[in-house]
Write a structure and sequence with these properties.
homodimer; 347 residues; alpha/beta; six-stranded parallel β-sheet; six-stranded mixed β-sheet; DNA-binding
Amino acid sequence: MTQRRVTLVDVAQRASVSVATVSRALSGDPQISAATQLRVRQIADVLKYVPNVTARSLVLQSSATFGLMTPDVTDPIHGQVVTGFQQRAAEQGYSVILSNGFRNAATEQRALREFAAHRVAGVAVMGSVLSQAEVKRLLSPSPVLFIGSDHVPSPGADLDLPRGCLRPDDRDGMNQVVDHLIERGYGTVAYVSGSSGANQMIRRDALVSALADRGRPEPVVHRADDLDSGGLQVVAAEILRGRPDVVVCYDDKTALILMDELRAEGLTIPVDIGIVGFDDIPFASISNPRLTTVSQRSDELGRHCVDFLLATRDRGKLPRSQHMAVALVVRETTPGPSRIPKKGKRS
Amino acid sequence: MTQRRVTLVDVAQRASVSVATVSRALSGDPQISAATQLRVRQIADVLKYVPNVTARSLVLQSSATFGLMTPDVTDPIHGQVVTGFQQRAAEQGYSVILSNGFRNAATEQRALREFAAHRVAGVAVMGSVLSQAEVKRLLSPSPVLFIGSDHVPSPGADLDLPRGCLRPDDRDGMNQVVDHLIERGYGTVAYVSGSSGANQMIRRDALVSALADRGRPEPVVHRADDLDSGGLQVVAAEILRGRPDVVVCYDDKTALILMDELRAEGLTIPVDIGIVGFDDIPFASISNPRLTTVSQRSDELGRHCVDFLLATRDRGKLPRSQHMAVALVVRETTPGPSRIPKKGKRS
DNA sequence: AGGAGTTCCGTAAACGTTTGCGGTAGATTT
DNA sequence: AAATCTACCGCAAACGTTTACGGAACTCCT
């Protein structure tokens, strides 16, 4: 804390060259002779020189830093995205500033302002309660990428695709789910939404479309706003009254909590009722019974985000919005309404 | 991307004052008249001025930024610490750069160097595979705080306490666990370690001490290095042979996976065997059966970390190492060896 | 009326980099 | 021997802040 950190001038003095030469030598500028480069590098090494990125950012007018805002890293699905994002960013020499928005407008605004103050090279936002316009306004002119947002073209539209959104292919996922449900002989299906705003609607709509496309009756949808404080308890009660054959949930977290509530109500899964989740978080594969869900490579999504941002830097504008591939993974919570699950190894 | 961002100069020109005045006005310096302050603030507002923290950091020789290195945010327990850390940091006007070390020495070194390059105001490190000395060396002179490390005084020592470590009170936790186990009539107990290095030893030692203090036989300890790729499968097989009454696990994640493996082997929990975890991650309370575990407020731990770091800034040296309070929460996996669990509401 | 205080603001240096431009020395050509 | 070229390197400006210091204008006292 007290001693000064070693700077370029220290290295320069020790090497009897100018700071310019040191800077160039360390960056491998061919203008500097190989001999000098080596010598400078060695001296920088023994002096334990660490470049000051804030100074560098200042002159370069851009910091090798990305901002990443999530509702809450505690959620496994967010954690995976964050991990992938940070990992890929590090590979490309970028740091990432993390901020939790907690689905609170004021907190999110503060977080985005913080990113702007840091002059980040780009920002990825997931599950914001703010409008995309406001987010862009706060961050401008840094490129922003929306993870799991809805400005993604429907299969019909082709021209003038929206840009800067990345989300799992809910439509495909729900199609797979419904096909599976039909094959297993389920009749009535219910849907229970999670807590995140616009996000869940997309997924819900994907389910109702999938059902409709196959001539199936509409699902009854239950809405749970507050997952953590017993919001699913009332949903469980509703479901107990309705008694659908299977309930598909907004995400695995919702599904897992719901399973607990349903068990508390005396139901046994999957004998009395089937459950399907979405995301395939790690705990989905070790729950009891193991959860059938649609798997998305969230870490890949995170990694892809920084590639998106990097491409923006190179090409000047954000790439087109994209869907990430998903895949249904059938486990133990959807054996078919009449079949009794058999104990055994994992799927 | 293309347009320039508004700086102090822009505001100064518009307000017909000097940049110094603008700077002071925005920071509420009493040297500037109230009238001028108001006017400057308004102009800064309409111009949407956002201060450039990299420039500020450069002149202040310290960036309002903390570094936080975790093995992997995907782990819920780490996610909670990160969340608490970031939240408290934001409250204090600090940003946090997140980096995953993945328990890989080279990756961790890169991450720490990155922190040093950012001239962070402090760093919190959890679950590193590097030695504390090396971490300090890489980061010097920034203060470093070790989360879950072992330089914590044993209850005997009092003088010259080590500094800069924060971890849950494993000893107290394991005492509570063992008391509970005895009360419930468990006889033989096994321990299975997780994957994190020095960390798990502390917890294991806490368990064996707790057992020894109460005149109980030593636990047989199983070691699982690789949680994700079936490392617990062989442990489950071992346990099947040993058939202890109860197995206490390094953490909830280990416990939950082990439960799954044990079920796959045909055991039913808790009738055939009891399980206790550590951490009380969210999924511990909704597993089937619900996991009894010792709860630590990981988010509080994270928050406390930034207070630690802040205190270091003010007082010049790191505060003494501390234990965080923990509390046993009894749920359904330890009803006693003979009792059959009854269905019902959560504990 | 002149000096001392007070209040308010501007000047300029500094933080550690990067990089365009110019310069020097030696080598090569005329 | 003068001129051109090449290879290497230094000078200095710039990035956007903060803050010590000085200075102008005004008030108040004697």
